[in-house]
Design brief:
Blueprint (H helix, E strand, L loop, with lengths): L1 E5 L4 H12 L3 E8 L17 H14 L3 E5 L1 H17 L6 H20 L4 E3 L5 E5 L2 E5 L9 H4 L4 H4 L2 E2 L7 H10 L21 H9 L4 E5 L5 E5 L26 E6 L4 E5 L9 E7 L10 E6 L6 E9 L2 E6 L11 E6 L6 E11 L1
Parallel strand pairs: 1-2, 1-4, 2-3, 4-7, 8-11
Antiparallel strand pairs: 5-6, 8-9, 10-11, 12-15, 12-17, 13-14, 13-16, 14-15, 16-17
GO molecular function: ATP binding; methyltransferase activity; tRNA binding; tRNA-uridine 2-sulfurtransferase activity
Protein name: tRNA-specific 2-thiouridylase MnmA
Family: Belongs to the MnmA/TRMU family.
Length: 362
């Protein structure tokens, strides 16, 4: 197959590309320039798309003996990921930019261009397993559950997954680093990137303040309606947040307060006791079925509501265009704007049944 290997400059994408070459595919490497003003150096594990990252990816491609290109996707990334991120926070939701990047950049913009150029598949260093079962793609959790990225890939369609390759799905991260060393890849010990790639200093609140400015509102006790303070904008908060609320006076019972709800129109941030974060039903719109098969009846499954953690056995149904998910155990801190991903437990690795964007909870 003709394979386009997306090479970020990190160890995972480097080993994924190396494995694609070793498997006999005709591989071309590409680094996506996603920043209009790329930095010259990374700051430890923060940041991405720097000049250093592009150079690291090129050196790996040279060692593998494959062609290498840098494609400028900065404008598309800004529109589809960064601006979406800002708009979602302004609307009182909590987005996942990694999920949006996979959906709109790596497996829409990049894949569309790859197919137009005659490639059969896009290869990435994601930790997830992918197979073809009865002619349909089947997305599963990674063998390395600590690195599993099936959650942020669950918004991909069956058509997109049919042109995807995840060579690291059956591997542990520790083994990938060993393999990189054995292959002589200089990125073998390069730190993993974390946090939000386009906010390299990790200050999400400061980034949003710079984009949205001040939008003053009130911090309100959900039980009594009492005004506890003021804030600079609902975009500085997320459901389930405990720290950094800016409330001076303790609660009457001395217990911590948590963000319960955001009201972007009125500017109110409602806070209260942790028990009020309990969620017994999740409504999600924009459902995606990675296998191409929608739910046609209620199913028992495992629901995950955050990229790391937030899982519970649940019953899910597809009702009037929405996913309705009822966890068997109360979940807390379920934020609108995040994805809920449904898994079917399986000994060979949990299978992704579907996903949707959380629009409401009860």
């Amino acid at each position: 197959m003709r394979v386009l290997a997306a090479m970020s400059g990190g160890v995972d994408s480097a080993v994924a590309a190396a494995r694609a070459v070793a498997a006999g595919h005709d591989v071309v490497g590409v680094h996506l320039a996603l920043s209009a003003k790329p930095g010259t150096l990374r700051t430890g594990s923060r940041g991405c798309c720097t000049v250093e990252d592009a150079h690291d990816a090129r050196r790996v491609a040279d060692l593998l003996g494959i062609p290498f290109y840098v494609w400028d996707f900065a404008e598309r990334f800004t529109e589809d990921v960064v601006e979406d991120f800002v708009a979602e926070y302004a609307a009182g939701r909590t987005p996942n930019p990694c999920l949006k990047c996979n959906e709109r950049i790596k497996f829409e913009a990049l894949l569309d261009k790859a197919i137009a150029l005659g490639f059969d598949a896009v290869c990435t260093g994601h930790y997830a397993r992918l197979a073809q079962v009865d002619g349909r793609p089947e997305l599963r959790r990674s063998a390395d559950l600590g690195k599993d990225q099936s959650y942020v890939l669950a918004s991909l369609t069956a058509e997109q997954l049919s042109h995807a390759m995840f060579p690291l799905g059956d591997s542990l991260k520790s083994d990938v680093r060993v393999e990189a060393t054995e292959r002589g890849l200089a990125v073998a010990e390069k730190p993993d990137s974390y946090d939000i790639c386009f906010i390299p200093d990790g200050d999400t609140r400061g980034f949003l303040a710079g984009k949205l400015g001040e939008r003053p509102g009130q911090l309100v006790d959900d039980e009594t309606g009492a005004v506890l303070g003021v804030h600079a904008g609902v975009h500085g908060f997320t459901v389930g947040q405990r720290h950094g609320l800016g409330i001076d006076a303790p609660s009457v019972d001395g217990r911590p307060r948590y963000v319960l709800a955001l009201e972007p129109v009125s500017g109110k941030v409602r806070v209260g006791a942790i028990e009020k974060l309990a969620v017994r039903e999740i409504i999600a719109d924009r459902p995606i079925w990675p296998s191409g098969v929608a739910l046609d009846r209620p199913v028992d499954c495992v629901a995950q509501v955050r990229a790391h953690g937030g899982t519970s056995a649940a019953t899910a149904d597809f009702v009037e265009g929405n996913l309705v998910v009822r966890p068997s155990e109360e979940l807390r801190g379920v934020a609108p704007g995040q994805a809920v991903v449904l898994y079917r437990p399986d000994e060979a690795g949990d299978i992704v049944l579907g996903s949707g964007m959380i629009s409401a909870t009860r």
